[in-house]
Input
Amino acid sequence: MPSLKPMPVSILIVEHFPVVRAGIRRWLTATPDFAITGETPSAEEGLRMVEQLRPDLLLLDLVALRRFGYERLPAFRANQPLLPVILLNSRSENFHGMEMMCSSVNGYFPSDGDADELITAIRTVCSGKRHAVSAQRHGNEHAAMRHQRLSARELQVFHSMCRGERPTQTADRLSLSLSTVNRYRKLVCRKMGVDGVPGLIRYAIDQGIEVFPE
Output
């Protein structure tokens, strides 16, 4: 008798930023033992989806949770007390002393993490263990914030890119030519050491830079 294949882990993604959510979706759909059961930018909608879909695991973005209210985090487990929760765009060392947060979260995924780290975090918490971000991993980062290397004009373009503004919109707003804006966009990515807008967004989240519209 052939053995039955294990059911894939059903995952609900609650991630505020569309470009980051798309990246996570791409990583997870490439992994056969994961299945995305739903996704939303809103923690409030995510709570309803948890109740309706009953996923095996919840990926919850820190920005979405902050807008929803940190104190409401336990509500996601009201009907599924054992639901594993991984907090996205966070570091576990940021929550020392926050007993409510620590008791309601099984793992943390940093804003600069990659696909392998997220997959490891998911498999770790699904096995019943906790996944914490290594403090040593982040201890070797440059002390200076990278965005402080940008000129005033480059910083304006950095903010516009993180807001999801199109180059033509930036050009109109700053009274620059489109070619000049595109040159600044490339320069910003090079100075920041990222490949594109998703990397800039992850950096902004990690540093707590408020550049996003409501």
Remarks:
- Residues 178-192 form the longest helix (15 residues).
- The chain has ten helices and five strands.
- The chain has a mean pLDDT of 82.
